DNA sequence: TTACTGTGCTGCTGGAATCG
DNA sequence: CGATTCCAGCAGCACAGTAA
Protein backbone atom coordinates (compact mmCIF):
# COMPACT_ATOMS: atom_id res chain seq x y z
CA UNK A 1 0.00 0.00 0.00
CA UNK A 2 1.54 3.32 -1.04
CA UNK A 3 0.62 6.67 0.36
CA UNK A 4 -0.89 9.43 -1.73
CA UNK A 5 1.09 12.59 -2.38
CA UNK A 6 -1.03 14.51 0.11
CA UNK A 7 -0.58 12.07 2.96
CA UNK A 8 3.14 11.87 2.26
CA UNK A 9 3.49 15.66 2.29
CA UNK A 10 1.55 15.88 5.53
CA UNK A 11 3.83 13.34 7.19
CA UNK A 12 6.89 15.23 6.03
CA UNK A 13 5.49 18.51 7.34
CA UNK A 14 4.60 17.05 10.73
CA UNK A 15 7.97 15.31 10.95
CA UNK A 16 9.54 18.75 10.51
CA UNK A 17 7.26 20.31 13.14
CA UNK A 18 5.73 22.83 10.76
CA UNK A 19 2.17 24.12 10.56
CA UNK A 20 0.46 24.47 7.20
CA UNK A 21 0.86 28.23 7.53
CA UNK A 22 4.59 27.96 8.24
CA UNK A 23 5.08 25.67 5.27
CA UNK A 24 3.03 28.05 3.12
CA UNK A 25 5.22 30.97 4.15
CA UNK A 26 8.44 29.10 3.41
CA UNK A 27 7.24 27.98 -0.03
CA UNK A 28 5.49 31.18 -1.03
CA UNK A 29 2.16 29.35 -1.26
CA UNK A 30 -0.97 29.87 0.78
CA UNK A 31 -2.05 27.82 3.79
CA UNK A 32 -5.34 27.02 2.10
CA UNK A 33 -3.53 25.50 -0.82
CA UNK A 34 -1.29 23.43 1.47
CA UNK A 35 -4.46 22.11 3.08
CA UNK A 36 -5.88 21.14 -0.32
CA UNK A 37 -2.66 19.36 -1.26
CA UNK A 38 -2.55 17.35 1.95
CA UNK A 39 -6.11 16.15 1.41
CA UNK A 40 -5.46 15.33 -2.26
CA UNK A 41 -8.12 17.81 -3.37
CA UNK A 42 -5.63 19.21 -5.83
CA UNK A 43 -2.24 18.21 -7.13
CA UNK A 44 0.84 20.43 -7.26
CA UNK A 45 2.78 21.36 -10.35
CA UNK A 46 6.23 19.82 -10.55
CA UNK A 47 7.82 23.17 -9.72
CA UNK A 48 5.60 23.63 -6.67
CA UNK A 49 6.24 20.11 -5.42
CA UNK A 50 9.98 20.71 -5.75
CA UNK A 51 9.68 23.97 -3.77
CA UNK A 52 7.87 22.11 -0.99
CA UNK A 53 10.37 19.25 -0.93
CA UNK A 54 13.25 21.76 -0.84
CA UNK A 55 11.92 22.92 2.54
CA UNK A 56 12.21 19.34 3.81
CA UNK A 57 15.58 18.75 2.13
CA UNK A 58 14.17 15.92 0.05
CA UNK A 59 14.56 15.40 -3.70
CA UNK A 60 11.78 14.58 -6.14
CA UNK A 61 13.51 11.27 -6.85
CA UNK A 62 13.52 10.28 -3.17
CA UNK A 63 9.92 11.35 -2.78
CA UNK A 64 8.63 9.19 -5.63
CA UNK A 65 10.97 6.28 -4.97
CA UNK A 66 9.48 6.09 -1.49
CA UNK A 67 6.04 6.08 -3.09
CA UNK A 68 6.75 3.03 -5.24
CA UNK A 69 8.95 1.03 -2.89
CA UNK A 70 7.75 -2.53 -2.64
CA UNK A 71 6.54 -3.97 0.63
CA UNK A 72 8.96 -5.96 2.76
CA UNK A 73 6.50 -8.02 4.76
CA UNK A 74 3.78 -10.17 3.17
CA UNK A 75 1.05 -11.31 5.53
CA UNK A 76 -0.74 -14.61 5.62
CA UNK A 77 -3.80 -12.73 4.35
CA UNK A 78 -1.86 -11.52 1.29
CA UNK A 79 -1.39 -15.03 -0.08
CA UNK A 80 -2.88 -15.82 -3.45
CA UNK A 81 -4.00 -19.32 -4.42
CA UNK A 82 -2.97 -20.10 -7.99
CA UNK A 83 -5.09 -21.75 -10.65
CA UNK A 84 -2.88 -24.83 -10.33
CA UNK A 85 -4.62 -25.60 -7.04
CA UNK A 86 -6.91 -28.62 -6.80
CA UNK A 87 -8.85 -30.29 -4.04
CA UNK A 88 -5.81 -32.37 -2.99
CA UNK A 89 -3.14 -29.78 -3.84
CA UNK A 90 -3.01 -26.18 -2.75
CA UNK A 91 -0.49 -23.82 -4.38
CA UNK A 92 -0.19 -20.43 -2.71
CA UNK A 93 1.99 -17.52 -3.83
CA UNK A 94 3.64 -16.13 -0.70
CA UNK A 95 4.78 -12.91 -2.36
CA UNK A 96 2.54 -10.91 -4.65
CA UNK A 97 3.54 -10.60 -8.28
CA UNK A 98 6.20 -8.05 -9.06
CA UNK A 99 8.22 -7.23 -12.17
CA UNK A 100 11.40 -7.02 -10.12
CA UNK A 101 11.31 -10.45 -8.51
CA UNK A 102 14.11 -12.90 -9.14
CA UNK A 103 12.50 -15.76 -7.29
CA UNK A 104 9.05 -17.14 -6.56
CA UNK A 105 8.35 -18.51 -3.08
CA UNK A 106 5.37 -20.82 -3.00
CA UNK A 107 3.65 -22.80 -0.25
CA UNK A 108 2.58 -26.27 -1.42
CA UNK A 109 0.06 -28.23 0.63
CA UNK A 110 -0.47 -31.79 -0.57
CA UNK A 111 -3.03 -34.23 0.77
CA UNK A 112 -1.98 -37.91 1.08
CA UNK A 113 -1.33 -39.35 -2.39
CA UNK A 114 -1.48 -35.95 -4.08
CA UNK A 115 1.01 -35.24 -6.83
CA UNK A 116 2.13 -32.00 -8.48
CA UNK A 117 2.10 -31.52 -12.24
CA UNK A 118 5.29 -32.67 -13.96
CA UNK A 119 7.46 -29.65 -14.63
CA UNK A 120 9.39 -29.66 -17.89
CA UNK A 121 13.10 -28.79 -17.90
CA UNK A 122 13.65 -25.05 -17.69
CA UNK A 123 16.36 -22.57 -16.76
CA UNK A 124 17.01 -21.81 -13.12
CA UNK A 125 16.99 -23.68 -9.84
CA UNK A 126 14.42 -24.97 -7.41
CA UNK A 127 14.63 -25.18 -3.65
CA UNK A 128 12.25 -26.79 -1.21
CA UNK A 129 11.97 -27.17 2.55
CA UNK A 130 9.60 -29.69 4.09
CA UNK A 131 7.60 -27.96 6.79
CA UNK A 132 5.51 -30.99 7.69
CA UNK A 133 4.77 -34.48 6.42
CA UNK A 134 6.90 -36.36 3.91
CA UNK A 135 7.11 -36.63 0.14
CA UNK A 136 9.03 -38.09 -2.74
CA UNK A 137 10.58 -35.73 -5.24
CA UNK A 138 11.41 -37.04 -8.65
CA UNK A 139 14.16 -35.27 -10.59
CA UNK A 140 14.87 -36.83 -13.95
CA UNK A 141 14.98 -40.59 -13.49
CA UNK A 142 15.79 -40.48 -9.78
CA UNK A 143 13.43 -40.22 -6.84
CA UNK A 144 14.34 -38.86 -3.40
CA UNK A 145 12.34 -39.21 -0.23
CA UNK A 146 12.23 -36.15 2.02
CA UNK A 147 10.48 -35.59 5.33
CA UNK A 148 9.94 -32.78 7.83
CA UNK A 149 13.10 -30.70 8.26
CA UNK A 150 14.71 -31.92 5.02
CA UNK A 151 15.31 -29.66 2.08
CA UNK A 152 16.19 -30.14 -1.56
CA UNK A 153 17.90 -28.02 -4.17
CA UNK A 154 18.40 -28.84 -7.83
CA UNK A 155 18.96 -27.32 -11.23
CA UNK A 156 15.69 -27.45 -13.12
CA UNK A 157 17.16 -28.83 -16.35
CA UNK A 158 15.38 -32.20 -15.89
CA UNK A 159 11.72 -33.11 -15.58
CA UNK A 160 10.63 -32.96 -11.98
CA UNK A 161 7.55 -33.49 -9.83
CA UNK A 162 6.57 -34.04 -6.23
CA UNK A 163 4.26 -36.60 -4.61
CA UNK A 164 3.00 -36.85 -1.08
CA UNK A 165 3.87 -40.47 -0.25
CA UNK A 166 2.93 -40.16 3.42
CA UNK A 167 -0.48 -40.70 5.00
CA UNK A 168 -0.61 -37.16 6.33
CA UNK A 169 -0.94 -33.67 4.88
CA UNK A 170 2.45 -32.49 3.65
CA UNK A 171 3.50 -28.89 3.41
CA UNK A 172 6.54 -27.65 1.51
CA UNK A 173 8.01 -24.20 1.12
CA UNK A 174 9.11 -24.14 -2.51
CA UNK A 175 11.26 -21.46 -4.10
CA UNK A 176 11.54 -21.32 -7.86
CA UNK A 177 13.97 -19.12 -9.74
CA UNK A 178 13.30 -17.48 -12.09
CA UNK A 179 9.58 -17.08 -11.33
CA UNK A 180 7.29 -19.30 -13.40
CA UNK A 181 3.93 -18.69 -11.71
C1' DT B 1 -1.92 27.54 -43.18
C1' DT B 2 -2.63 31.15 -39.97
C1' DA B 3 -4.98 33.94 -36.74
C1' DC B 4 -8.56 34.64 -33.72
C1' DT B 5 -12.07 33.26 -30.30
C1' DG B 6 -14.55 30.56 -27.00
C1' DT B 7 -14.34 26.98 -23.60
C1' DG B 8 -12.79 24.01 -20.13
C1' DC B 9 -9.32 22.62 -17.05
C1' DT B 10 -5.76 23.25 -13.60
C1' DG B 11 -2.92 25.49 -10.24
C1' DC B 12 -3.31 28.69 -7.02
C1' DT B 13 -5.10 32.82 -3.96
C1' DG B 14 -7.37 35.08 -0.16
C1' DG B 15 -10.49 35.54 3.24
C1' DA B 16 -14.32 33.68 5.91
C1' DA B 17 -15.88 29.76 8.54
C1' DT B 18 -15.06 25.92 11.39
C1' DC B 19 -12.61 22.88 14.49
C1' DG B 20 -10.28 21.24 18.65
C1' DC C 1 -6.97 31.13 19.65
C1' DG C 2 -4.05 28.85 16.54
C1' DA C 3 -4.64 25.41 13.01
C1' DT C 4 -7.24 23.78 9.41
C1' DT C 5 -10.91 23.66 5.95
C1' DC C 6 -14.09 25.67 2.67
C1' DC C 7 -15.10 28.07 -1.37
C1' DA C 8 -15.54 31.66 -4.86
C1' DG C 9 -12.77 33.41 -8.10
C1' DC C 10 -8.53 34.54 -10.94
C1' DA C 11 -4.74 33.59 -14.36
C1' DG C 12 -2.64 30.89 -17.60
C1' DC C 13 -2.67 27.25 -20.72
C1' DA C 14 -4.27 23.74 -24.10
C1' DC C 15 -7.40 22.66 -27.45
C1' DA C 16 -11.22 22.72 -30.73
C1' DG C 17 -13.86 25.37 -33.92
C1' DT C 18 -14.13 28.82 -37.40
C1' DA C 19 -13.13 32.46 -40.63
C1' DA C 20 -10.03 34.47 -43.91
From TrEMBL:
Domain HTH cro/C1-type: 9-63
Residues annotated as signal peptide: none
Keywords: DNA-binding
GO CC terms in record: cytosol
Record-given protein name: Cupin domain-containing protein
Any one GO MF annotation of this record: DNA binding
Gene3D superfamilies per record: Jelly Rolls, lambda repressor-like DNA-binding domains
Organism name: Dissulfurirhabdus thermomarina
Amino acid sequence: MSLGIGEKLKRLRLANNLTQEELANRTGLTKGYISQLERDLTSPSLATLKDILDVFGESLADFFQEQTREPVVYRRSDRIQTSDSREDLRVELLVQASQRRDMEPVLLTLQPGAETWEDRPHQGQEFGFVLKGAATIQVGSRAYRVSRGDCFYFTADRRHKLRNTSDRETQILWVVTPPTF
